[in-house]
Amino acid sequence: MNQYDAIVIGAGHNGLTNGAYLAKAGLKVAVLERNPYIGGATVSRELHKGWYYSNCSYVSSLLRPEITRDLELPRHGLQVVPFGGGATFTRNGDYFGNYSDHDRHYREIARHSKRDANAYDRYAADTSLQTKLIRPYLLRTPPDPTSLKPRDLRDLLEFARSFMALGEEKLLDTIKFWTASVGDYLNEYFETDVIKAHMAGSGIIGTALGVYSPGTAYVLLHHYMGDVDGNVGAWGFARGGMGAIANALSKAFQSYGGEIICDANVDEIMVRNGHVTGVALKDGTEYRAPVVVSNLDPKRTFLDITNPSDLPKDVLKKARNFKIRGSSGKLNIALDGLPVFNGLDPKSRLMAGDLHFSDSLERQERAYDDWKAGTWSKDPYLDMMIPSLTDPTMAPPGKHMMSVFVQYAPPKIEGREWTDEDKDGFEKSVIDQISNYSPNFRDLILHCETRTPREIEAEVGLTEGNIFMGELTFDQLLFNRPFPGYAQYRGPIKGMYLCSSGTHPGGGVMAAPGANAAREILADLKRPNTVPGGYADD
Amino acid sequence: MSDFNREARLLTTPFHSRVAAMCDLNDWGNWMGYTTPNAYFDVELEYFAVRSTTGVFDLSPMNKYRVTGPDAERYLNRLITRDVTKIGVNRVGYAIWCDDNGQVIDDGTIFRLGEQDYRICSYQRADDWLAWNTLGFDVSIENESDAVAGLAVQGPTSCTILTLLGCTDLNQLKPFGIAHYTFEGRPLMVSRTGFTGDLGYEVWVPPESAVALWDQLFELGRDYLIKPIGSHALELARIEAGFLQAKVDFMPAEEIVRVGRSRSPFELGLSWLVDFSKPLFNGRSALLKEQAKGSRYRFAMLDVEGNKPAEHSFILKGDKQVGTVTSAAWCPTAKANIAYAQIEVPHGAVGDELVAEIYYQRELHWTRLLAPCKVIDAPIFKSPKRWQTPAPPH
């Protein structure tokens, strides 16, 4: 019957990872998915015949290699292919190119500023230092600073030690880094607008903050701390689109005996005598289990599918105050051929990387001003990719698939819901911007899927369309994620757990929250741990 | 002024003008006296061309020998350890050949082009060895290394690209099969072979066709994301796929100076290539003796914990050193840390748990790491595309 050892709500990558590790430990596990397809925001969909869209998340770097290897995801069909290159096009018809080769990169920066080119090495070293601090904690449960448990004390001490070992100057730099704006941080190294703007993008993606908002330097780090095959900071495409990640995870999960149930829209987590007993679907079906793991964001978990009478007041308050502001939208475009961009040889390898048009911090901050005013950016910041230049399975030969991440898009337009006219306006501002730099772009469009925060929330279930399931600012990181007292993946009800990107270490298709949560659940159940430890990053 | 005239130390292959034009990194190596690229633009991306699109590798410096004559089959059966009669016409077989002590001289591929017409592709030069072995056989051996140019065209879109080039029905060609075509009025031979463990082909043409072949391949392959690959990327792919490399994983027996440094097929995990049921072959009695008595070493494929490649590592059992690593890499598609090792018997059987003593340097600081590892029975990377017929389009 519908009786399980554990039920996971949401078949996104974290739910599937969590389910896989629980099932690997011998538990009978079901992962429930509201949509008729799995993946959540880690999905590939053929929305135009012959073209596959990674229509939410679109690149991979943070996915923990320890998990990929341990769950044998390559055997289950996952292949992550790194891409090189990237460019920011400037209004004067030039561009700044991002090369993976150090010396070529130096020459390209030097074309704009010799001083910046030299400063880049200092910038790279300083930023690498920060990634080294955080990377060891990705596959670990954050210590609770208020706890006297030996594990928490030991982990806190280790955490403190790694910071103190930096020495005074670097420690102060670190504190500044974790609280600074990406704009201020970059201003300390570079003088050239386009170079700063190119790098600043990583500080605002997915965040309802501007380049001059404190805390955005950390967001930059969040985009730098991943790796592809040990190349820290490198990004890649999942072959076949991001859905390949969810598909491989689902096969791993099923290989351990796990069960995936689609079209299962959870209405409520059932609780009796302070302990979860299972979940009830909107259609009345009930699934019973002493462990229920929510892969929904903290707001949905506590405010939508848990009965408020089962929750302590502080959790309701914290959930209500949790910052999960929508800031972005997405255009997925089927193209009849390769667009040509001002100034860049279409055969350049830079084309295979991330492309942008915001050539100054000023323009990026103005884009944020529109968000604050309650509307989409009229001159948006775009993170644009053509994955079909790397992955031949995304579009027919000679045709291309373009993924355009768009910032900013507010969750509501001047306080009211998005309308279809708003969506058209949003789409137009993006297409207009690209067309300003690419004369043939508009004529190549065969199909375009436009997703504002409204569509992302409705279709994927991310509150306000926030891609990280909660902003990545220091007040919501580590032992503060999703909120203090609940950062170790345990909910306030016995048997209730959290495994979404709303928990440490956050979003970005890492699968770490799902794995970390599984480790805690198995410890509570006194089962042997099946979750691998992290690789040493030295 | 120097007292000597300048002279080119290395030769160039028939593809060189095109290879050089694409070699952004200008990173050249010496392969068999030929100038060959270590890397063209980015080792990682070149490697991934092989795994995700198509990578093209210039293998013209391979040594190629044509063996013809009434005794060609009998001659080769004497030469190599496997039964050559089982390789049909227009089929290719991987093979090794041993000296009389049953020690491996080289490995290579045997192309059966006709009933009594073979081509041997070998890593090492073999003119002398092949000539000595003709005693008593009616065969002729021709070194056609310079007469045949070759490209490895490897990866998921390789069949599609070669089909566009005019290789009709290539998707029907089975692994290790050979097909013959005409390219610009000259013969073009395709074999479904390679060193990458994925769908892939080797294309063989007269040197006069080389430049046109390269140009057309890259023109037709553009929409299928064709890229040139250098030897570093190929090295990564072959370790991941489980292929041995002469002079890396074993020393050719004829070059050995120090006693005991050569290896038998059994010691290289290649017993499947030794067929005692066929007529006399070089090394047979020594290998029979070894089979009865036991080998000194065992080839072990190791799955090493962590992400530090176990390059040049000692392999330990407890505190005792029982072996050394010959090849090692973090394998980007398998997402596994793989090492090949020579392990002293009785250690190194499948499932044996050993320790790799790894040294690695970061910012001039050396760290010694003792990484647990386990002997596995087969490469972790297994591409279903490698064996599929008809070959998939991508």
Q: Could you characterize what this model shows?
A:
The complex is a heterodimer of chains A (538) and B (394). Chain A is an alpha/beta fold and 538 residues long. Chain A has a domain at 6-43 and 62-80 and 239-321 and 473-524: 3-Layer(bba) Sandwich (FAD/NAD(P)-binding domain). Helix content of chain A is 35%, strand content 17%. In chain A, the strands form 7 sheets. In chain A, strands 11-2-1-15-21 form a 5-stranded parallel sheet, covered by helices on one side. In chain A, strands 18-19-16-20 form a 4-stranded antiparallel sheet. A 3-stranded mixed sheet of chain A has the order 7-6-17. In chain A, helix 1 packs parallel to helix 17, helix 3 packs across helix 4 and helix 11 (298-304) packs across helix 12 (313-321). The longest helix of chain A has 21 residues, at 114-134. The mean pLDDT of chain A is 95. Chain B has 3 domains: 16-62 and 147-241, 2-Layer Sandwich (Gyrase A, domain 2), CATH 3.30.1360; 63-143, Alpha-Beta Plaits (2-Layer Sandwich), CATH 3.30.70; 296-380, Elongation Factor Tu (Ef-tu), domain 3, CATH 2.40.30.110. Chain B has helices at residues 16-22, 43-52, 72-79, 127-132, 158-164, 210-220, 231-241, 284-293, and strands spanning 27-31, 34-39, 54-58, 63-68, 91-98, 104-114, 117-122, 140-143, 149-154, 178-183, 186-191, 200-205, 226-228, 297-304, 314-317, 320-331, 336-344, 353-362, 365-376. Chain B has a 6-stranded mixed sheet. In chain B, helix 2 crosses helix 7. The radius of gyration of chain B is 21 Å and the shape is globular. The mean pLDDT of chain B is 96. At the A-B interface, helix 2 of A face helix 2 of B.
What are the SSEs and their pairings?
The complex is a heterodimer of chains A (538) and B (394).
Chain A: E1 6-9, H1 13-24, E2 29-32, E3 45-48, E4 51-53, H2 65-70, E5 80-82, E6 86-89, E7 95-97, H3 102-112, H4 114-134, H5 150-164, H6 168-179, H7 182-187, H8 193-204, H9 216-224, E8 227-228, E9 231-232, E10 236-238, H10 243-255, E11 259-261, E12 266-272, E13 275-281, E14 286-288, E15 291-294, H11 298-304, H12 313-321, E16 328-335, E17 354-356, H13 361-372, E18 381-385, E19 400-407, H14 420-437, H15 441-444, E20 445-451, H16 453-460, E21 496-498, H17 512-524
Parallel strand pairs in A: 1-2, 1-15, 2-11, 6-17, 15-21
Antiparallel strand pairs in A: 3-4, 5-10, 6-7, 8-9, 12-13, 13-14, 16-19, 16-20, 18-19
Helix pairs in contact in A: 1-10, 1-17, 3-4, 8-9, 11-12
Chain B: H1 16-22, E1 27-31, E2 34-39, H2 43-52, E3 54-58, E4 63-68, H3 72-79, E5 91-98, E6 104-114, E7 117-122, H4 127-132, E8 140-143, E9 149-154, H5 158-164, E10 178-183, E11 186-191, E12 200-205, H6 210-220, E13 226-228, H7 231-241, H8 284-293, E14 297-304, E15 314-317, E16 320-331, E17 336-344, E18 353-362, E19 365-376
Parallel strand pairs in B: 3-13
Antiparallel strand pairs in B: 1-2, 3-9, 4-7, 4-8, 5-6, 6-7, 9-12, 10-11, 11-12, 14-17, 14-19, 15-16, 15-18, 16-17, 18-19
